[in-house]
Write a sequence for this structure.
């Protein structure tokens, strides 16, 4: 982390954000399996944290443990719907489970693949887009060089830090963020946190 921060501070704008935010808390979530992490990500999509946690907890309680692919494929639809899953999310979870069971998404060795291959593999699953795959890379696998250019929070933070007139397009995020390689995940963490940190002064 010291090496990452030293490199990122070469960007004066990011250096100010690092100073304001303070110690970096970026670290991966290591509990459960890779499959569990994607199940959780799908359930949490477009829901408040509290509502998503309740539904996620009900799904786990239904099986007495985080569900395996075979569990999701065999469980009656009405039981999963009663846990709070929408019909759409149930479809996403069934698709995920089918691809995991067939080996199309090799969860047991997913962490061995390069970032680009992981994104390509995961986005074959219904309901898993580039952003969700990138969150998996960052917060499950701890990959150090991920910049989610589609994320509105990242775009807004860059707009504020660089005093841009409008939120940057994804291609502009990637252009600006190229200087943060190979620590773009750490830079992203600081950009998100900067939205909650005290505002920069005019002198900055």
């Amino acid at each position: 982390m010291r090496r990452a921060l030293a490199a990122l501070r070469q960007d004066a704008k990011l250096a100010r954000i690092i100073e304001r935010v303070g110690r970096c808390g970026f670290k991966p979530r290591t509990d459960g399996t890779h499959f569990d992490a994607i199940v959780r990500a799908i359930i949490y999509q477009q829901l408040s944290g509290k509502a998503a946690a309740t539904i996620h907890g009900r799904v786990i309680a239904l099986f007495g443990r985080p569900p395996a692919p075979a569990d999701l494929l065999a469980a009656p639809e009405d039981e999963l719907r009663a846990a709070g899953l929408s019909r759409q999310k149930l479809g996403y979870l069934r698709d995920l489970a089918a691809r995991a069971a067939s080996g199309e998404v090799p969860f047991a060795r997913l962490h061995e693949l390069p970032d680009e291959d992981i994104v390509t593999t995961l986005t074959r699953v219904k309901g898993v887009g580039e952003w969700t795959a990138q969150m998996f890379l960052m917060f499950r696998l701890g990959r150090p060089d991920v910049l989610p250019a589609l994320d509105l929070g990242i775009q807004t933070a860059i707009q504020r830090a660089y005093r841009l007139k409008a939120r940057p397009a994804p291609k502009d995020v990637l252009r600006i963020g190229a200087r943060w390689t190979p620590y773009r995940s750490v830079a992203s963490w600081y950009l998100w946190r900067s939205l909650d940190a005290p505002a920069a002064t005019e002198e900055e």
